[in-house]
Amino acid sequence: MRDRVGIVTALGVLTVLCAIAPLVGEFWSGVLARCVSWMFLAISFSLAYSYANIPSVAQATVFGAGAYAAVWATSLVGGNMILIMTAGAAAGALIALVFGALLLKMSHSGAAIGTIISAVTFSMLGNAAVAYTGGTDGLPMPAQAFHLLGMPFAVGPNIGMLLLGSAVLAALLVAFWLFSGTRTWRVVRAVQQNAMRAQVLGYNAAGYRLAVFAVSGCVAGLGGALYALISRHVAIEVVSLSMSLKSILWAAVGGVTSIYGGPIGVLAVQLASELLLRWTVRVDLIIGLMLIAVALWMPRGVMGLRRPRSSQQSQ
């Protein structure tokens, strides 16, 4: 069943962002551009948690892999943005495949603990491998004449990157929406709801879960590549555990069972954070209270408010 309300809402949010970008100035255009890159991370967590049934607390590790791959690839492919984004997506998918193959051998709670350990370990390794990651100082994006489909393109926190990120995300969401009406997606849903029963019916439940987790990694890696192009700099904090926890917060606020909730969650949390910073330094405390409130009174997030729980069939 295709979620028409979800896709219209998500595309509407992206359209509004693109429409107001020329009106809000350079600073806010940069903020919104980064928010769009983080939307990929929130969506990747929703895919991993709700459809692959893997509680991955290391999605930022995959996101960071895509970001670093984009920086490294720039030195090899020049300023070809298509190849740079492809490198990020491929790196994310590869890391997710390795993670997924290991996590599927663990219990649900064991997988959560395993991803926490992985996130901390990769963060420590990144800090140690300063020659490749830049450590806490990070790596700048190599100076190149960036181009997209043969046309010069200015990377950085600007309106152009906001429009590009929104266009890529919109295409991704439409692709998911179209795919959600296929027989393959119905099998994915069946595996998600009862993997053992799907296995008895002849479906390779582990294979489907691994495939979905790899797709979630591809999405996160693509977002990481866009983040690198927007920030023109990547530091080791992008693979940190705190970044992974942010992805969980974004997905929870938007609706963790819906891939269309991620954009709403990112905007709600990040814009609230930016505004609160002008009034208080205790932003993390307030955002933490927000998460508690969401868990208590909106367990299905914003997208879960649009219809009764009994009919919730988010895609």
Automatic annotation (TrEMBL):
Keywords: Cell membrane, Membrane, Transmembrane, Transmembrane helix
Keyword Cell membrane: yes
Its membrane topology: Multi-pass membrane protein
Family annotation (CDD domains): TM_PBP1_LivM_like
UniProt entry tagged with the keyword Cell membrane: yes
Major location (coarse): membrane
UniProt-recorded name of the protein: Branched-chain amino acid transport system permease protein
